[in-house]
Design a protein that fits this description.
The chain is α/β, with parallel strands linked by helices. Helix content is about 55%, strand content about 10%. A hairpin with a 2-residue loop joins strand 2 and strand 3. The chain is elongated, with a radius of gyration of 29 Å. Bound molecules: adenosine-5'-diphosphate and magnesium ion (MG).
């Protein structure tokens, strides 16, 4: 156990960068410029800024969905349509049915629109989010087209000629019936959306969302419910789009289906990509660049070609290909480079209340037991009647030549795969049928043969993903910064684990900048952050240099000393021999020897099968 560790050992976060270029001052300056814009700019530019704001709100949803979560949607324009048409119908119908008649003002229509959007998003999400690879974007095109045609086909929505006579929005008696007025509402909504999205990303749920890009297996084994996380960002992105649609309807005072088609959905996606798909402020940059460019191209291209036509579509297509090839991170990193302010460091509050810990089981207690585990892949028997056990305060190595079945066995032990026959008991309970999250909660945690980190995230935040299941604050508290007490505790825990494994000096470095050996150790820290009593490590020494292997060995010895049960699958005999308590040797899916390292090393069957093959 590690409860006595002094919190004072934590490094203090560096002070916020001073000077006029600090991020907060830039935001304040931007807001001040926006506040004056309608008073000084000609009508044309105010209108342009209004459309940029509306588009940025949709693009912001895509930043979360596509840029951060890795789920591509071409159908966002349809959600804009749901928001726009809901308010159009509710605020223009003379004879609404009684049950909905209360919602005939724009603000109430916004609530109805958001509720309807959330409902549609949940239905569409449960149908499409399960699709993998290219099928997901194709699915979004399918429902994007369906909704678009529905807007045009429904008589009550005015068909292709649309609905007009939409009233302006009033705020506390002030009627926003001019572009210069609704400008403030559009940008207030957008800035609020940017700030809440930024808050969300900097939280427990935000890390879970970002962990989606590290692969489902990694996220689930850290206790993240990945289907829930996907659904959350899908619904949030849809709500942003619907809000944009609501504002759009009351700005135009008229809606028809044209702005809600899939071709517009592609433009929104393009804005998010151009802005830098993972960057919240990039949504504004991308929307700005694309909206202005479109305006120019629509003016100039027909003049150049001498005939009317939507030539800008061709230019956008070419640009998209170029951006995807040449500037994968979009334009935002270019803007960001102009600003010398350092990335904000996550503050570690050394005084935060420590998270509760489960008591370590007494040394010698059997933690993990495999009984006659057999795993067949068709005719191939990858594991044959394998039995082994790991005790608290013990390191067991599972070794064997390539293809012996070690990784397969590892998957049976960690619950990623289910044995064809036989059973695996963790602290006396069968783990059959339990998902990775439930197993993680019981106190089993793991690292990966091929490291699975978020390379752009800091070491601290990567480790904090491991503490996910020890927190409970959800999306809404995170968006409004009501989760800070719990967040401080989670980050403090993560920081302690980073220190514990000896990576303290890299606390705020990008995980991807570490050497491979350090990345593997980072994965152990992440596993430790879940408060496990058993660590499963798949080839932790693979690809490490001698010094790194020594550091890893020292760490594992220390953890064993604290009562941790450790099972490692390893290829490297030398690493194993000086370190572990017992060894199980596999060949052709079977156990061929078991015992102390010295005994196993002399076993003729092992020499023949394993060492013989190496020399
Ligand atoms: P090791 O980790 O010891 O190198 P593995 O457990 O990866 O060995 O593989 C053992 C055997 O099982 C190999 O012959 C491999 O091809 C086979 N195998 C592993 N996973 C699968 C799978 N999902 N489907 C079919 N065969 C598999
Ligand atoms: Mg393997």
């Amino acid at each position: 156990m590690n409860t006595t560790r002094s919190a004072a050992a934590l490094p203090l976060p560096a002070a916020a960068p001073a000077g006029i270029f600090c991020a907060r001052n830039i935001v304040l300056g931007f807001v001040a410029l926006l506040a004056f814009a309608p008073a000084v700019l000609p009508e044309f530019y105010v209108t342009l800024l209004n459309y940029i704001g509306l588009a940025a709100m949709v693009a912001l949803g895509l930043v979360l969905l596509t840029g951060v979560g890795g789920l591509t949607s071409f159908g966002q324009a349809a959600f804009v349509g749901v928001g726009a048409y809901t308010t159009a119908v509710l605020t223009t119908s003379a004879n609404l049915p009684g049950w909905i008649a209360w919602a005939s003002s724009p603000w109430l229509a916004l609530l109805v629109g958001l509720a309807l959007t959330a409902l549609i998003a949940v239905i569409l999400g449960s149908l499409t989010l399960r699709l993998s690879g290219h099928y997901l974007p194709l699915g979004t095109i399918a429902w994007g087209i369906s909704l678009y045609f529905m807007f045009g086909a429904m008589e009550s929505l005015g068909g292709h000629s649309g609905l007009s006579g939409i009233p302006p929005i009033s705020v506390f008696g002030w009627t926003l019936d001019e572009g210069r007025e609704i400008f403030y509402l559009i940008w207030a909504f957008l800035l609020l959306a940017v700030l809440t999205t930024q808050n969300l990303l900097d939280s427990r749920e935000g890390r879970a969302i970002r962990a989606l890009k590290g692969g489902q297996v990694m996220a689930e084994s850290m206790g993240v419910d990945t289907s829930r996380a996907r659904m959350i960002i899908f619904v949030i992105a849809a709500l942003h789009a619907a809000t944009s649609g609501w504002l759009f309807a009351h700005l135009q005072r008229f809606v028809n289906p044209t702005p809600f088609g899939v071709h517009v959905g592609i433009e929104y996606l393009f804005m998010a990509v151009v802005g830098g798909a993972g960057q919240v402020w990039g949504a504004i940059a991308g929307a700005g660049v694309i909206t202005i460019l479109k305006q120019w191209l629509q003016d100039w291209l027909p003049a150049i070609f001498g005939t009317a036509g939507n030539f800008e579509v061709i230019v956008f297509g070419l640009m998209m290909v170029l951006v995807l090839h040449r500037a994968k991170d979009g334009l935002w990193p270019l803007f960001a480079r102009l600003v010398p302010a350092a990335a904000p460091l996550r503050k570690i509050d050394a005084a935060a209340k420590p998270l509760p810990r489960k008591p370590m089981p007494p040394a010698g207690e059997v933690i993990l037991e495999a009984k006659n585990v057999t795993r067949k892949f068709g005719g191939l028997v990858a594991n044959n009647e394998m039995s082994l056990s790991v005790k608290a305060g013990e390191i067991l190595a599972l070794i064997g030549p390539n293809g012996a079945g070690k990784s397969t066995m590892f998957n049976q032990l960690s619950g990623v795969d289910t044995p064809t026959s036989g059973e695996v008991l963790f602290r006396g309970q069968s783990i059959a049928g339990k998902d990775s999250r439930a197993i993680a909660r019981l106190g089993m945690s793991r690292s990966f043969q091929h490291v699975r980190l978020l390379p752009k995230m800091s070491v601290l935040e990567n480790v904090a993903i491991g503490a996910h299941l020890r927190g409970s604050q959800g999306v809404i508290p995170a968006a409004w910064r009501l989760d800070r007490a719990e967040e401080a505790r989670l980050l403090r825990e993560a920081a302690l684990q980073v220190e514990r494994v000896g990576l303290g000096e890299f606390m705020h470095a990008e995980a991807g900048s570490l050497a491979l050996g350090q990345q593997r150790i980072l994965e152990i820290a992440r596993a430790l952050a879940s408060d496990p009593c058993l660590l499963l490590l798949d080839e932790p020494a693979a690809g490490l240099r001698l010094k790194e292997k020594q550091a890893l060995g020292d760490l594992l010895r220390r953890l064993r000393g604290e009562g941790m049960a450790i099972l490692l699958v390893e290829h490297d005999m030398d690493f194993v021999m000086g370190l572990v308590d017992r060894v199980v040797v596999m060949e052709f899916g079977q156990k061929i020897a078991e015992g102390l390292p010295e005994e196993v090393q002399k076993n003729p069957a092992v020499l023949e099968a394993y060492l013989g093959g190496v020399e």
